[in-house]
Amino acid sequence: xxxxxxxxxxxxxxxxxxxxxxxxxxxxxxxxxxxxxxxxxxxxxxxxxxxxxxxxxxxxxxxxxxxxxxxxxxxxxxxxxxxxxxxxxxxxxxxxxxxxxxxxxxxxxxxxxxxxxxxxxxxxxxxxxxxxxxxxxxxxxxxxxxxxxxxxxxxxxxxxxxxxxxxxxxx
Length: 171
Hints:
Blueprint lengths: L1 E4 L7 H13 L12 H13 L3 E7 L2 E12 L2 E9 L8 H14 L4 E8 L3 H9 L3 E4 L2 E3 L4 E3 L2 E8 L11
Helix pairs in contact: 3-4
């Protein structure tokens, strides 16, 4: 089930931190991650929510299994930030289910575009995005809030032109 959280007071910090903290600590791709500080993460989340962002969570049986931040980045343009799945639920389709549920929720509001930067070597995330209908639109990712290119990432995009369009392209 999709949970949409816009108020920081509605955040289950324990479940959310379990998703993100374990993801960073168990990263096995040999990359150096900056230290994980839960208070800093939660403060950043509060700031994003106050700025119009939304925490989107895939929940099953009361357990938060996957989460992402949905941030407005322009007129009907939304950027996906920090898509993560709790390590215990990876490989079960939770990220794809979350992405698909976010798309269905946004379709109720009219045309939109979703963008995300996905690490090129993160095959599970690339597959989850593709299952949800995203296509690769850039070989170098771009993060609009830091205004930086991310050479290790590619740009993924999903476009919903609206209910009156007969297009099936998600470019």
